[in-house]
Backbone:
């Protein structure tokens, strides 16, 4: 009967899936690493890339031959490649193709948008688009809120994830091939999914502005480390404290983010703390040299503490305070020069480093960040890959039209010696140039209002912290 036929089909599908997964697991565990070892010894990038492509295509043909989706095979091949010890080299080799293939994918998505179909079936397509966006956004926002994110950050995550996925094209195509959907239904669904992808950038931008406004209108505990975001991090036992949110501090926080390591930033400059907090970052106003501040932020429970302050005396005060309060705390400190580094290491038992990269002063913070990640237990290969990615991001930002925020993030060095550190005078020079460039330019009303709001917050934060 029909029941027996369905049971037989299910058993057959399970056997095929087990064969496919078993074969792929065997190949990944016993074949791939040895194959890549042989190819790596040949020192041929072409051969290495050829093996990568052969693996993906072979897995796709294997799953398709067993009656499963070739897309599933390609996905499983990616999982296997990510488990090899050559995963970072593979990522670097396929990087040039990634952008091209993504571009081709979105071109095909664009081809799925049929304007005439939208015009003739507008109510249906609009309803499907709204349903996809709303349901996914609400579910993702709720899940993020349940896991402790603030509403401002949760709604941003919801908007980022609300569009239809690329597997919809595979699923609807298979459904049409099997006769489950008619060609018209398939076209309507594919057009709706493509439109959700098309409107997502505008929705993300609106969500970002909404989140920023929510952060700005939050109470002052939001900036003092007394809100839910800060309490959640402080209650955990696997976070890092970053002291200072200047050029080095920003990059350290970004590197910690890339490793999904929780952190709390403490910045004595209220302007910097407010600006970072308004972007949803866990950076708060406070003076770490005050014992009550260190206690309030649960510094003693931290996995480590990174002092990124640029001024030598302020660094000494912060490190001495931390070492006196927490003798067993792992401390990483930014040193001004080699002599300062030696004193910190011998006298206060900290891991100290002068954050300078000889070939390019704009990248001076990367080795310091790499040392922090390595000391926190990150694998050397992974640290190298993260630093390489960050180096490329910084180089891409170096163009004639980058603005004030980009300059402040990258640092600025007017000294010809590439090994010179970024000093406070350098940063003041950047500020001065920015102000000079804008002299005579009418400042928009929104910017004036934003600055007035920030000045008001700064004043109240300083009063609360006094």
Residues:
């Amino acid at each position: 009967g029909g029941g027996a036929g369905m049971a037989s089909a299910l058993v057959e599908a399970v056997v095929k899936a087990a064969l496919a997964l078993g074969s792929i697991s065997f190949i990944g565990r016993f074949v791939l690493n040895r194959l890549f070892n042989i190819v790596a010894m040949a020192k041929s990038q072409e051969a290495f890339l050829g093996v990568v492509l052969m693996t993906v295509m072979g897995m796709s043909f294997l799953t398709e031959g067993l009656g499963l989706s070739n897309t599933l095979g390609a996905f499983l091949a990616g999982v296997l490649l990510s488990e090899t010890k050559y995963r970072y080299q593979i990522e670097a080799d396929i990087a040039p193709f990634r952008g091209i293939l993504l571009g081709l994918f979105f071109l095909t998505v664009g081809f799925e948008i049929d304007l005439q179909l939208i015009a003739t079936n507008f109510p249906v397509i609009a309803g499907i688009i709204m349903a996809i966006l709303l349901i996914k956004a609400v579910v993702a926002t709720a899940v993020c809120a349940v896991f402790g994110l603030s509403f401002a950050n949760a709604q941003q995550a919801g908007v980022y994830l609300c569009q239809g996925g690329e597997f919809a094209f595979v699923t609807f195509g298979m459904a049409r091939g099997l006769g489950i959907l008619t060609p018209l239904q398939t076209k309507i669904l594919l057009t709706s999914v493509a439109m959700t992808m098309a409107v997502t950038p505008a929705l993300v931008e609106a969500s970002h502005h909404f989140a920023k406004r929510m952060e700005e209108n939050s109470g002052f505990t939001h900036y003092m480390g007394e809100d839910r975001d800060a309490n959640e991090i402080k209650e955990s036992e696997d976070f890092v404290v970053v002291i200072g949110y200047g050029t080095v501090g920003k990059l350290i926080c970004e590197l910690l983010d890339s490793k999904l390591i929780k952190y709390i930033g403490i910045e004595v400059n209220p302007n910097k703390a407010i600006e970072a907090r308004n972007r949803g970052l866990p950076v708060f106003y406070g003076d770490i040299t005050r014992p009550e501040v260190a206690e309030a932020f649960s510094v003693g429970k931290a996995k480590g503490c990174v002092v990124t302050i640029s001024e030598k005396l302020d660094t000494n005060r912060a490190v001495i305070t931390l070492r006196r309060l927490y003798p067993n705390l792992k401390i990483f400190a930014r040193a001004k020069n080699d002599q300062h580094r030696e004193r910190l290491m011998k006298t206060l038992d900290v891991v100290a480093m002068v954050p300078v990269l000889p070939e390019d002063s704009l990248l001076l913070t990367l080795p310091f960040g790499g040392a922090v990640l390595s000391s926190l237990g990150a694998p050397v290969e992974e640290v190298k890959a993260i630093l390489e990615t960050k180096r490329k991001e910084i180089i891409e930002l170096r163009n004639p039209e980058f603005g004030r925020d980009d300059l402040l993030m990258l640092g600025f060095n007017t000294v010809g010696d590439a090994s010179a550190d970024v000093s406070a005078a350098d940063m003041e020079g950047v500020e001065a140039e920015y102000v000079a460039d804008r002299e005579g330019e009418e400042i928009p009303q929104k910017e004036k209002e934003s600055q007035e709001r920030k000045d008001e917050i700064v004043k109240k934060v300083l009063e609360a912290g006094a």
In short: The CA atoms of residues 114 and 339 lie 68 Å apart. Residues 357-362, 399-443 have pLDDT under 50 and may be disordered. The chain has 21 helices and six strands.
